[in-house]
Structure prediction request, 302 residues.
Amino acid sequence: MNRRRYPDFVFAGAARSGSTAVVESLRRRDEVFVTQPKEPHYLALAEGGAAFTGPGDELTINAKAVTDQAAYEELFRDAPSGALTGEGSVSTLYYSAEAAPRLRALNPEVRVVVVLREPVARAYSSHQYLVNRGFEPEPDFLAAVALEEERISAGWHHLWHYTAMSRYAEDVARLQEHFPSTRVWWYDDLMRDEESTLAEIHEFVGLSRPTTQLSVGRVNASGAPRRPWLQTAMQVASRSAALRRVVKAVVPFDARERLRGSNLAVNDVPPDVRRALAPHFAADLDRLGSVLGRPVPAEWRS
Prediction:
């Protein structure tokens, strides 16, 4: 049995940028062990704990976050001997000031994977995701953005930080400072050529190039519900810990995601939303390009 108590790789973020697809593709490989939960949030939240105050935070992140080091180490206890171990907390990027030094103390040689999404689309997806889960009380995205600072001050957890989580440059620079091998992919490439992008990520974390299909399909998606009654039923089910355990035990991950995804119609960012928010990210995208030594995708500027 492998007794290592640290990750060999982490998917650090950004949120709503394909983390589930990437991490689940890694989990399916025999030579990889990924924690349950996928997002323990230990690296970001260990000292302060998880005591967020937003709608549903008590049922979700507060209940699931692993904030004790011994408990975090225990997540890796069953990793097979020789397996690469990892986790996928997207909070690691956003809380890099706390997470990067904590991760370095565990494993200075860790491989850090980052996937970034065009910032307006990322924020909009996060809002749709929270609306669909029944937690976001403000259905209008721009109105919710106007409440962001108030919510942050009140202690709502990071998924509610719609525009703040879409500013990447400082956090990417900090991860690179602690882990020079940190590698950044674009969400656009993951969507255009999922197989090749996943293969690159697998090789980066130390795996041989895969010989089988890696794609796990559309997972953890956001969008507008096609059948509101079904969305409501899934919201009710998600609020019962006992029911969630039963469903996970009897319904495979792929089947759950097919059902959830089939009920969501993907929505593009409305033009008025893009016009209102895109200018706020221009300076950060310039700095991000400087940090990475390559420009962000041209379509992020349109």
Notes: DSSP finds 17 helices and seven strands in the chain. The beta strands are 9-13, 32-34, 84-87, 111-116, 183-186, 224-225, 264-265. Residues 40 and 64 are 7 Å apart (CA to CA). The chain has one domain: 9-217+284-301.
